Amino acid sequence: MTTPVRRRNGGAMQDRPLGWTRNPLREFDQLLGEMSGLIESTVGGAAPAVAWTPLADVRESDDAFHVEIELPGVKSKDVDVEANGQELVVTGEVKEKQREGVLRRSTRRTGSFEYRLRLPGEIDAERIKGQLSDGVLTITVPKAEIAKPRHVEISETSGSTESSG
Fold this sequence. Notes:
Elements: H1 9-15, H2 26-43, E1 56-60, E2 64-70, E3 79-84, E4 87-94, E5 111-118, E6 129-133, E7 136-142
Antiparallel strand pairs: 1-2, 2-7, 3-4, 4-5, 6-7
């Protein structure tokens, strides 16, 4: 009875061109690992699952950012607004209503929600205001004094100071 002969992979690898000796997916795996690390450092490794993100409009005026977020049926006590640096985070919960009878169909969103917005300029976090009216949360985020546009006066000098020589 003959026993199988085990060959080393090194012999077969030498017949291939030099570019074939490395794993072609190694760079992809490295990139995927780096992206996963970046996401975990941004969101956190044990971030709670967020069911949905509400619809919103963001406008910018000369002195503030104005954010309108649709939150129908939400009470102000169920909403939390936080500002950290240039980021605005709105979290909360839409509670399911107690119903009698059998619910045949439901298309309303319930559960936890989160809306994150990174603003393009410096903000004055101490003066942020929020108002909930008719199912729309309106947040006014004032710009910091250093971020406001300033008009620069340009003076004009009369005459030229050229010398002839």
